[in-house]
Amino acid sequence: MTRVLPQPQFQRWISRGPDIFVVEFSRPDGKLITALWSKRPVQYVNIELPEDTVTVNAWGEQSATREGRMKVSEEPFFLVSRSPLVMKD
After folding, report:
1. Quick check: 25 and 68 in contact, CB under 8 A?
2. Per-residue pLDDT tens for 50-73?
3. CA–CA separation, 19 vs 30, rounded Å?
4. What are the structural domains, with CATH classification, of the chain?
5. Among the four residues 37, 46, 59, 72, which has the most C-beta atoms within 10 Å?
6. What's the Cα-to-Cα distance from 22 to each of 33, 84, rounded to whole Å?
């Protein structure tokens, strides 16, 4: 997690109901890191993703992200982008 969030600066807490947590941080390089996790085993969120968004899992493995409907679980993951994500209903 410290590789994804070196010297994090809290930006905002994005409300997604009582069971889904979404927190946005900024890094010194200007990128935004959005951490997502849930109290429940599996839930879904709809997100408008910038083109350059990369997903980083808890082990630091990266993958390009193109989809807007994302599975959120008790295991946190991170979205790395240059512009803020927009949560959809």
Report:
1. no
2. 888 999 988 889 988 777 888 999
3. 29
4. 9-88 (2.60.40.1180)
5. 72
6. 10, 12
As a whole number of angstroms, the distance between CA 44 and CA 22 comes to 12
Say what the pTM is.
0.86
Strand-pair category, 32-38 with 20-26:
antiparallel
On whether the CB atoms of residues 47 and 22 are closer than 8 A, the answer is no
Q: Side-chain half-sphere of 69: how many Cα atoms within 13 Å?
A: 3
**Cα angle, residue 21 at apex, residues 68 and 19 outer, rounded to 5°:** 100
Confirm if 41 and 73 have CB atoms less than 8 A apart: yes
Residue in this structure with the two tokens 């959809």, named with its chain if needed: 88
- H runs (alpha helix) in the chain: none
Q: CA distances (Å), 50 to each of 59, 71, 79, in order?
A: 23, 18, 10
